[in-house]
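Protein data:
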Amino acid sequence: MKRVSLGGCWIPAVVLLAGCATGGTNHAASLQKAMDANHRAAIGILQKANDEMLPYRIEQGVFGASFSKSDLSLLAPSDIAAWDKILCGLDTYCAALAELTSGKEAADYAGASESFGLKVKSLVKTVEGSTGAGIVDAGTAVTELGSILVTYKGERDVQAVAKAADRSFQTVVCGLVGALGFVGEPPRPVAHGLLASYEAGYQTINAEKSLRRFKGDAIAGFAAMAPAERRESIKNFVAWLRVEQDHEDFVESVAALAGALNKAAAAHAALARGDPATIGAAFAALRAEIQNTVQIYQKYKQG
């Protein structure tokens, strides 16, 4: 069977080609597609957060007693690696659901499901090294998803599998959304998590420019400046406006990712309940969000 790599996960190509299941749209395939987009966007955002915070970390380090590689970034490499493994685990779980609805023989699915489950469990063995409590909880819940796939390897009813796995799926997504710095439905920002840490650093390093030099989006004291000073101030002002726009775009992207993850959780819950009306609305909202997360990935992808 041909396999393709998505976000570091090797997934059978048949999953990506699954179009319609008997009786309507293959919702499991839509969920897998959405989670892959969320995965890519999340890693891009985490890497961007480190890039954005570098000036602040350097400035902060000047006043410290020591400085090492770990001081250069907001997020440790182990934390980003933990996110990657957890999201890869979700990708693999969703791929297993899509495989279930692809029309393959039950014997073939049983072997694939067990393989997927073992893959999920092996992915998250190192997550416990993360410093984020929500990430550790999410890693544990992803391991549970792997165990469920192994246990239900002979099951052909996607709703039955989703129902058994929904608590763990919700725990994973809740942990990731919380680590981003959001709670509730729809997600709202709180005073802890990635976004709050990023905002604190950003406001600290830009406070002097925001409150003094360019208060009200204008150059303070411009009338009294000589031509050369005006020219330099305008250059600095333009550069600052670009930084401000990048900052606003980043904050909006983090909020959009939290919302997209929340919609994935709602879609999975609807799949578990099996109510046709609820499923239709939840997956329509999920599919509408995919392009947004693809755009976030395109904006922040490395290289």
About this structure: Strands lie at 3-6, 9-12, 20-21, 24-25, 182-183, 188-189. The radius of gyration is 22 Å.
